[in-house]
Amino acid sequence: MSIVTDIRGTAGVILIDRxxxxxxxxxxxxxxxxxxxxxxxxxxxxxxxxxxxxxxFAAGADAGEFSKPPTDPGLxxxxxxxxxxxxxxxAAIRGxxxxxxxxxxxxxxxxxxDQTAQLGLPEVVLGVVPGSGGTQRLPRLVGMETALSxxxxxxxxxxxxxxxxxxxxxxxxxxxxxxxxxxxxxALARPPISAMPRPLAAPEAxxxxxxxxxxxMRGQRAPAEAITLVExxxxxDFETGLAKERACFLELRSTAECAALRHVFFAERxxxxxxxxxxxxxxxxxxxxxxxGGTMGAGIAYALMQSGSAVTLVERDDEAATSARARVSGLxxxxxxxxxxxxxxxxxxxxxxxxxxxxxxxxxxxxAIEAAFEDMAVKKDVLAALDSAMPDAVLATNTSYxxxxxxxxxxxxxxxxxxxxxxxxxxxxxxxxxxRGKASSDMALATGFAxxxxxxxxxxxxxxxxxxxxxxxxxxxxxxxxxxxLDGAEFxxxxxxxxxxxxxxxxxxxxxxxxxxxxxxxxxxxxxxxxPNRRYSRVQDEMCAAGRLGRKSGAGWYVYEDGAKxxxxxxxxxxxxxxxERHGISRRPMDDDAVLNTLLLxxxxxxxxxxxxxxxxxxxxxxxxxxxxxxxxxFRGGPLFHAHQIGIATIHEQxxxxxxxxxxxxxxxxxxxxxxxxxxxxxxxxxx
Length: 688
Ligand code: NAI
Known about the structure:
The protein is α/β, with parallel strands linked by helices. The structure holds 1,4-dihydronicotinamide adenine dinucleotide.
């Protein structure tokens, strides 16, 4: 079912019924047109009410239609028909009224919403501008400044704010009933939005919106185009503005940017457990245990507490338990100062959380997550203690790199261990790698997915290897960058090409921020297994040994002085030169394109390795990990989407060239060879 009509008193109701989100597709559009024609001819009616079935109005156009040619009737035709209807149309709004949904509502003469309503035009998030009058009607209704604060960032307003802004005319707990019965005198006393006076220009608000777009959505076209279209309303008649908007929408929907953003959007929606895991019953998460209350453990415990779980945090001694408590308390204080919670509630939450040394009284917890030091001996002690203290729980490790299968072997029942790899800060970052060990049961994995849902995280299931998906790729790109430095690139150049590509921060600036010592410890751990023939740069090790650990030590790749902008560390050049000399390399300047391409090829080849080995299940999963955990620009879609766009044959050819220069480091992943032979791309794999 897509459109349902009904008569209520003197109102003809058109219900958009495509639950759960009432996405507007061809059937909805033509159904609305038919219903309008049918109801307008009914002489006993004095209005038409447009509403959504279920809990929402309409979440927007069906993004699945974006990649297909537009079909008649398009949304602009429906919007125009609503506005031109001989009976006034009233929108009754619950929940999401977004994108095309709001464009329908803006064509109505009156908008009544309940408290759950959320109204906005988030099209830029998918790389397009509104295409059915949103940029032209919204400023005429709410003014230029409000429209500029919404459309270019895809920001929506909740019911009360929308009412205050004039976007919603009335609030009512039963908007459908209210819309059927409301006195429409005021609505009919004003013209439809397209005939309202032009809004006043707001050059300062436009400049501010441009600045925000340049900062938060750097490199993307849609936000800037949206600003221009909104500004147009101050001095352009409605029809001209509408035509420009439509042309811009149609052009943008076929850009690579739009395709990339859609890819990530659909990948996010597809991030669900496989069938066998879905069928398993997860453990209860009402009582949980976190072991280790450092950077990660405190964040995880805080997130669990916010989700309503009764958390016990276990530390190695009383002093460490007190420090862990202070860390969680700090997170609560930050939430209070940001207005996310009240001081009273925060204090009550802290009191209700248990902090203890040792493993007493944990037996009724459903899940324990260990976030102790990244050290196998420590992990062994912790898991042995949990094995006897919580015989029925699912046990999870937050390890970044270590072998989960080995850890599982220490347990009486290895099937109850999974990896739950959070990202820092754990209470904020959405990504959660759910690591499936060889023995992990479906129930243990289902508990990981249930946890992701409860905490609002994005789950991606991965297999066991050193670093799983994200950190293994990070290590590879770091290695590629170190080699580029030895060959002649500059670290500032690497950071620059990455930010130009769309990263918020380059590799070296990021390393300084997180501290060079973490990767150093990891390289020491891996030293025994490193192939002595593989080119290894000691530059970072030497920096670490000299105490240059990044921002926290005042210097790393950059130098940090209080209040000043970081400047490149002049000491790096000599270290790099000396290391290049040790390798017998005479450094030569490299151009930016070559540097960027090499970094991307390293990511792509490693990702292909992960897919081929089955560590990652889908190309889209790799992209999600890189976009959500490692700053890969969302509007580029992720490394494998990017590779797919370039074409597997080109990627293969370029990798082959690199392989010829250094066969050990650049060995082409077998999956790439296979895809070339089959004439397929990375994303075709996912469609299987
Ligand atoms: P951290 O050093 O900040 O905290 C570790 C905590 O574990 C300390 O509070 C320590 O007292 C406690 N601890 C150590 N041994 C213990 C034991 N036997 N029993 C109970 N508690 C014990 O370390 P961080 O950064 O929080 O890392 C924890 C784990 O999370 C590591 O496995 C790390 O690889 C992983 N991880 C770290 C990320 C990061 O960005 N820092 C990101 C993702 C994972």
